[in-house]
Amino acid sequence: MLRSPRTSLGGSHQTPFPAGLTLLLSALLALSTLAAPAHAADRDGGSWTVHQPGSRQGGISAVVRLDATNGALTLAARNGITTVLEPAPIGIVTDDADLTSGLTFTSSSTRQLAEHYAMTTGKQLRRTSRMTETRFSFTGEGGARLDLLVRVADDGIAYRYLPSGEGEVTVEREASAFRLPDAARAWLSPYTPNYEGVYKPATAADAVSGSYAYPSLFQVGDTYALLTESDVDGRYAASHLVHEKGSGRYDVRLADGAAVASTGPLATPWRAAVLGDLATITESTLVDDLAPASRIEDTSWIRPGKVAWSWLDGFAPAQRSLATQQRFVDYSAAHGWPYTLVDDGWKSTNWMPQLIDYARQRGVGVLLWVHWTDLDTAAERAEFLPRVKKWGAAGLKIDFMDSDSQERFRWYDDILRDTAREKLLVNFHGATLPKGIQRTWPHVMTLEAVYGAEYGTVPASGVATLPFTRNVVGSMDYTPMAFQFGSRTISDAAELGLSVVFESGLQHFAGSIRAYQDRPELERFLEQVPAVWDESRLLSGRPGEGATFARRHDDRWFLGGVSAGPAETQDVSLDFLGGGRWLVEVVRDGDDGLVRERRIVTRRDTLRVPTAEHGGFAALVCRATEGRRTCDRPVTRLPLTSLTVDPARAEVDTGASVDVSGRLALEQSGPATDVSLSLDAPEGWKVKGDDLRADELPTGGNLSGKWTVSVPQDARVGGHDVVVSAEYRSPGRPGAGVLRVERTVRVFVSPPDVDHVSNLPFASERNGWGPVERDLSNGEQAALDGGFLSIRGTTYDKGIGMHADGEVVVELGGAYRTFTAVVGVDDEVGGRGSVAFEVLADGASVATTGVLSGADAARTVEVDVTGVRKLTLRVTNGGDGVDHDHADWADARLTA
């Protein structure tokens, strides 16, 4: 690939190609390459060299050699006079022919390829790709034919096989390999199908024997080689590298070691090596250049951006809380972030359409987590995708594919087609590596495939390796800004710098709202930083040590740096800027938190930034003009409010009353106008207290009210909702209309002559995961982290939430006649889990349910406990382990 000319901002710069013009240019360029005369490959006996004409410094070249003694092929690669990839075997074995030896040369032809295309995501939105392609034809034993396609660009080489055959072709294995000099430095990650391994340094030969993931990085002299693959879909399987210690050879191994079958003619994925200095490696778009063109003609609905992600601020319980998710929506609206993501847990609730409507009024899109098995059939996709699109969901985070098999890639083909049809953005987690997928399917905003922040223990050296490895090949959902989670390994300023250093079309920021608010300079920078780039430059760095990038969006540059090492002063060259004077605003670690410093510079200056241990910085650069004091641009905001009520739940008898208080606080982005606070009770209930109003509520202000709610004597037994609501307008966005937020006080009216087990003291208790919960589901590991008890869509106000293996013992003292409960696996585990319920009276088993799964209907348990002194409620696993075994004793009651 030949990069577009680097354009200084002091002069003119190109505007994005319109979609129609891009297609027209691509078509004209394709015609021109087909019509161009083929260049004869250099031939020296059984050796052919493919190179890019006019490339700099001798350029990249690929050398294909056919051994005269055994008819086997090898491929090597050079950068100038340096052999970076030594001759390594290439070839393929199908069910019809062994095309790894016994080959004879038939013919070759060469053409020049040139293409312009546009991306919706990435380090560079507009791309220009130029390559030399040579097609070699060989004949094997029995007349079988193998075509080898070799491409050479300014930033690397690639090859693929085109075995003959018009019907079904079964590939049993590849002989493909890469061979590095034994002493070459290496940065390798152990292979797992979700690519969530930590990169560690080694040498090519001394790396331990085993399987390694793409991309793998090596250094040979001054040249680096990043090994990976491109253009993998359901026609084939993905692959990885297999290595034996003591050799610099790395063999390509297909996923699961299984054969792949494809309807011919077959073109295998590209085996690719990005070659060059570290700037070339990090700025390369070779993987996308090799991939098929976009299959979506109209991409106007595809909108990258920043996302508020609440998972690391409460895990599944936070996803089941409408109030929590509304708060993250409000935070996005208050800071100009276009999205919020609701992760695993929301499917056990029924409020998602309400949340999406709430977010839509505030200009925020909602992304939804889903397990891939919920979408693994055409019928499931046909039901689920239109349903969430009708709600107004902006996209999906699809998780836990955890396979590189051909079967899984066929599923990728299906889900990408179907989500594109519904105009849903996609974020793949527990997923394969980007292999050009974001060019072919531009609604794929990002993929995980990384040992990311959700692990909480990513070493600083690992963070500093990712810009040179994983993030080179496509958007990476690392989820930075998780200040409240895990063991911090880099400084606050370095974490902020990751918003620039790491590229992701959806940049999921994983902080808590309090963590953001405690760092106002971080909030301010995150309001400004985009998620896509017109241009990207590596300014300095080395794998495992640090990386500093400059990325341009429109006419502003954003700088980010991260380092693994002691405190130092980092010198940043500014020679990428255009002429004239520039304003730089640097955010760095100070003695008492993040500080912002302003400087006027030119391209001849060096920016000196003090950095902390394992530190970094972020910076914003714009033209210095008369009177300009900041590079910030206006952000459309809505007030960030919080509405709290007390109590959240109450239990009362008929004829009694409950006191309710509510408080609306305006935390950020005020003022709010036409503010009101009111309470609504069920029909027939009496309310004492006045609604409140304020013409204007400034930032830091609040509106508080108190009410006494009286329950009538004839009130229905069970749960009732008392709703405290606030309404307000935003003068900054008058078009948003009246904004409303509600909080519910759940009031449970107790039946006479009944004691709920959850109200009684426990003589003893044990639980398989976290504490036993009263009137809540098991949730996660902390107390009070569950949601409403819910079995097969029915919610219950009272009961006990357990996790197998668990048990509760209650002293009855012979005071009751009957015990009843509705039992089943809680909906929060999404249909998974399997448990068995057992009731014991004074140690004797008196009722069992057998094994119930998350797909089974609730069961009613009724036991005569006359004279029983000790009642035991026990839950055991279903014989298949305890994963997801959340068990509910719903409406568990004792009648006297």
What does this structure look like?
This protein has 896 residues and is mostly beta strands. Among the domains are: 19-289, Beta-galactosidase, Chain A, domain 5, CATH 2.70.98.10; 640-749, Sandwich (Immunoglobulin-like), CATH 2.60.40; 754-895, NPCBM/NEW2 domain (Jelly Rolls). It is built from 13 helices and 59 strands. The strands form twelve sheets. The protein has a nine-stranded antiparallel β-sheet. Residues 1-45 have low confidence and may be disordered.
What is the structure about, briefly put?
The chain has 896 residues and is mainly beta. It has 13 helices and 59 strands. Mean pLDDT is 93; it is low at 1-45.
Which features would summarize this protein structure in a list?
mainly beta, Immunoglobulin-like, 896 residues, disordered N terminus, Beta-galactosidase, Chain A, domain 5, seven-stranded parallel β-sheet, Jelly Rolls
Set out the fold topology:
Elements: H1 19-35, E1 42-43, E2 47-51, E3 60-66, E4 73-79, E5 82-90, E6 92-94, E7 98-99, E8 104-118, E9 126-139, E10 145-153, E11 156-163, E12 168-174, E13 177-179, E14 185-188, E15 200-203, E16 210-212, E17 216-220, E18 223-230, E19 239-243, E20 249-254, E21 260-263, E22 270-276, H2 278-283, H3 286-289, E23 305-309, H4 315-319, H5 322-335, E24 339-342, H6 352-361, E25 365-371, H7 378-391, E26 395-399, H8 406-421, E27 425-428, H9 437-440, E28 444-447, H10 460-463, H11 492-501, E29 506-509, H12 513-517, H13 520-528, E30 535-542, E31 546-553, E32 556-563, E33 568-573, E34 582-590, E35 593-601, E36 606-611, E37 616-623, E38 640-646, E39 649-652, E40 657-668, E41 672-680, E42 686-688, E43 692-697, E44 702-710, E45 718-729, E46 739-749, E47 754-756, E48 764-766, E49 773-774, E50 789-791, E51 794-796, E52 799-803, E53 806-811, E54 818-825, E55 834-841, E56 844-853, E57 859-864, E58 870-877, E59 886-895
Parallel strand pairs: 23-24, 23-29, 24-25, 25-26, 26-27, 27-28, 39-46
Antiparallel strand pairs: 1-2, 2-3, 3-4, 4-5, 6-7, 6-12, 8-9, 9-10, 10-11, 11-22, 12-21, 13-20, 14-15, 14-17, 16-19, 17-18, 18-22, 19-20, 30-31, 31-32, 32-37, 33-36, 34-35, 34-37, 38-40, 40-44, 41-43, 41-45, 42-44, 45-46, 47-59, 48-53, 49-52, 50-51, 52-59, 53-58, 54-57, 54-59, 55-56, 55-58
Helix pairs in contact: 5-6, 7-8
